[in-house]
Amino acid sequence: MTVTAYTVCCLPGDGIGPEIMAASRAVLDAVAERFGFTVDCEGHLIGGAAIDACGCALPDATLEAARAADSVLLASVGGPRWDTTDPAAPRPEQGLLAIRKALGLYCNLRPVHVFDALVDASSLKPELVRGVDMLIVRELTGGLYFGARERIDDAPGAGANGEPGVWCSDALEYGEGEIERVVRYAFEAAAGRPRATVCSVDKANVLGTSKLWRDVAHRVAAEYPQVAFSDMLVDNCAMQLVARPAQFDVVVTENTFGDILSDEASMVAGSLGMLASASLGDGTPLFEPSHGSAPDIAGKDVANPLAQILSVALMLRHGLGQPAAADAVEAAVERALDDGWRTADIADDATPADRVLGCAAMGERVAAYLA
Ligand SMILES: NC(=O)C1=CN([C@@H]2O[C@H](COP(=O)(O)OP(=O)(O)OC[C@H]3O[C@@H](n4cnc5c(N)ncnc54)[C@H](O)[C@@H]3O)[C@@H](O)[C@H]2O)C=CC1
Ligand SMILES: CC(C)CC(=O)C(=O)O
Ligand SMILES: [Mg+2]
């Protein structure tokens, strides 16, 4: 019998990254054993760890390994050790942006699923969050994070009193093709969902790029008459997400808006530590939690690994072609939560102390449900 063998390029990165990566590896090993395939996880450097080792946030060896792998599993990058406002200094986040760009990963899926057991963990009222099942589709390789940057240190009139001073600019740029491909992905995703609804979020009352975004979204929408479609301005969306989150099915938006709105939406699901993501496009797909390296809790074994574990589920479904294994991981997470197991971020006063697990123990607990 031939055993299917996959290669996954693992990038633990910084802060809580190595802890949540280890927890998710336990789950990946367990699910691979149960479903009869093997996964060769190759560890590589990215972010601050890579800056320390070789002076740049995305070494060539990492990118080559990512290109050669079946999927990339990334944890998180960044931390105070590398925080600097010196525009010439390397930053860990450059590694993340560079790998997304180099692999052509223009479409970032961020599912916001409220597990029944976590309805009370949300900062919103239970009746508002129960049953929320939203998919945020974020454009990932364009817009403000990739536009031209400029800095002039003695620009005329830029000082507080009209004297020369420092002036900076970050360009927000989009071509219609960049918009169309991600909006199309959102419509394809919506067409396969029960509510078949897309909300396109922009700032078309002000920004030129958003006016283009809206035109393109309407053009694509016309090709999908079976999908209900609406537009929403981003400031209103930020409010609606906490007022009536259940109204949303698929939300599609540009890079910066999606970054911010998805962190906000994570609290509907109980914690930033619950939000997984899949970055898809032209090259090797990449899977990572939506959160950062959480320096405030790094090294304490208290981080929630479920966003990373749910990213493994997305990898099994969208990267490795193992949908049954993906379902099994999600079911194992659900069982762990239903049985009352919590990490500190999703525990409350009613959680018995012996049900609050550390990061590694939560990984082992989910893995045990897969045995
Ligand atoms: N994809 C990535 O690697 C990202 C990296 N960053 C970087 O991470 C560093 C820290 O950024 P922050 O703004 O603090 O954002 P963050 O997402 O790391 O943390 C925000 C808050 O959420 C908590 N949190 C995050 N993940 C958690 C988890 N799994 N379990 C429990 N609590 C969790 C943190 O403890 C913190 O209080 C910065 O250097 C930033 O640039 C930020 C966002 C994404
Ligand atoms: C470097 C940032 C753009 C990372 C981030 O906040 C994200 O992708 O959510
Ligand atoms: Mg973010």
Please give a handful of descriptors for the protein shown:
binds 2-OXO-4-methylpentanoic acid, alpha/beta, two-stranded antiparallel sheet, binds 1,4-dihydronicotinamide adenine dinucleotide, binds magnesium ion, 371 residues, 39% helix, Isopropylmalate Dehydrogenase
Your description of this structure?
- Helix 11 (323-338) crosses helix 12 (359-369).
- The protein has a domain at 1-106 and 274-371: Isopropylmalate Dehydrogenase (3-Layer(aba) Sandwich), CATH 3.40.718.
- The protein is α/β, with parallel strands linked by helices and 371 residues long.
- Helix content is 39%, strand content 20%.
- The two termini are 22 Å apart.
- The structure holds 1,4-dihydronicotinamide adenine dinucleotide (NAI), 2-OXO-4-methylpentanoic acid and magnesium ion.
- Mg(2+) binds at residues 235, 259, 263.
- It catalyses: (2R,3S)-3-isopropylmalate + NAD(+) = 4-methyl-2-oxopentanoate + CO2 + NADH.
- It comes from Granulimonas faecalis.
Short synopsis of the structure:
By secondary structure, this protein is of the alpha/beta class.
Residue windows where pLDDT falls under 50 for at least 5 positions: none
Q: How confident is the prediction overall: mean pLDDT?
A: 97
CATH homologous superfamily grouping of the domain at 1-106 and 274-371: Isopropylmalate Dehydrogenase
What compounds sit in this structure? Answer: 1,4-dihydronicotinamide adenine dinucleotide, 2-OXO-4-methylpentanoic acid, magnesium ion
Any idea of the CATH class of the domain at 1-106 and 274-371?
Answer: Alpha Beta
The chain-level structural class is alpha/beta
